[in-house]
Fold:
Amino acid sequence: MMTFFKVSIFVVCFSQVSIGEIVLSEILSNEPGNRVLLEWLEVYNNNPVAEDLGDYILVEGEDSLSFPEGSSVPAFSYAVLCRRLEPIDGSDCFEYHWGDSSGVWGDSPSENCIAFQINISLGNDSGAIYLLSDNGQVIDQYAWEQASDDGRSVERDDVNAPISLWHPCYDPTGSTPGQPNSSKPSDQREYLLDVSPQVISLSGPERSVVISYAAPAGAEISVLVYDDSARKRAVLLENSQSPFGTIIWQGLADDGKQLPPGLYLISFIVGGSINSHKVIPLVISP
Structure:
């Protein structure tokens, strides 16, 4: 039987996931339409052996849940934890919407993923889920501060990475319970620009900044520097087809002279396979 109890005070220290753990992999908190019984979350076992869910505790809000005794996830497999797995007196349920609508989960080849019922209640607009070991260590967590589209889940980018971003499900059905997560369309692939630190001190220790960039293959990348009057002062990279790289900039203009103290803008322009533009401010101080 599932254990359910209230937690009055709960303090966690955020940690990164270790390789070889159960991880949170997909969450549907905003059910289709006005339904309230179709919430679910998915976990993935990236261990080479089956993992006993009895060794874990799920915390959602102030509620702490222990999994049913004997429940486990096979090696390199997904399991879905849903609010209502099968119908009760004709009620709505996970099986009706993601199964063959027979009312029994697992009686069809299409219902080939592990699924359990668990007494969760996920907030649409905001919430947080923590996955703990049985000794209270935080194994994984996910928090959201705005509702996803109606009936659309959010998915972990990489179930094998110790730290991962999440994205809205790109599958036309809106979710992929028990299946590999959807891939981002090629025209929505992310790019990266990082400037560290965001200050150059002409008299202090920070005499240069490191500009790191990355973009999808096939993109043309330019990194330009403008002053606060929108005048271009330096071209650090122009139409490069290298998908990633690092630039060390010491605050010099194209003519090799030191730029004066002031506010500058690092402009990252991506063309070619995608068209994007990002700007990061930088200060040169005396």
Residues 94-98 form the longest helix (5 residues). The longest strand covers residues 262-272.
